[in-house]
Design goal:
Cathepsin B, Chain A, mainly alpha
Length: about 110
């Protein structure tokens, strides 16, 4: 969690909090189910979840981010798909390297 707070302090001009909230929730889900705490990629969500009301660092919705993770069969880790504080093109190679997944969400 400290890493998420430091990222926000370094890049307060971006509105990617929706993506990092979902990545943080996924970290907690993964720890509860596997016992392993893995830092997951908010940047993947920012760049690759482009459906519905999700607009990268311009804002988005947590519900569609969870839908993206479910459709994608997982989320990669932070070290593989690091935060860069800008919108870019989805890196499909990194996107396919799943570190944690969920089967459904409510």
């Amino acid at each position: 969690m400290a890493s998420l707070l430091s990222l926000e302090a370094m890049h307060p001009e971006t509105r990617s909090c929706w993506a990092f909230a979902v990545a943080g929730a996924m970290e907690g889900i993964n720890q509860l189910t596997t016992g392993k705490l893995i830092s997951l990629s908010g940047q993947e969500i920012v760049e690759c979840d482009t459906t519905g009301e999700d607009f990268g660092s311009e804002g988005g919705e947590t519900e569609t981010a969870f839908e993206y993770i479910t459709r994608n069969h997982g989320l990669t880790n932070e070290s593989t798909y690091s935060y860069v504080a800008i919108d870019g093109t989805c890196n499909v190679t990194k996107e396919c390297s799943h570190a944690a997944n969920i089967n459904h969400w409510l």
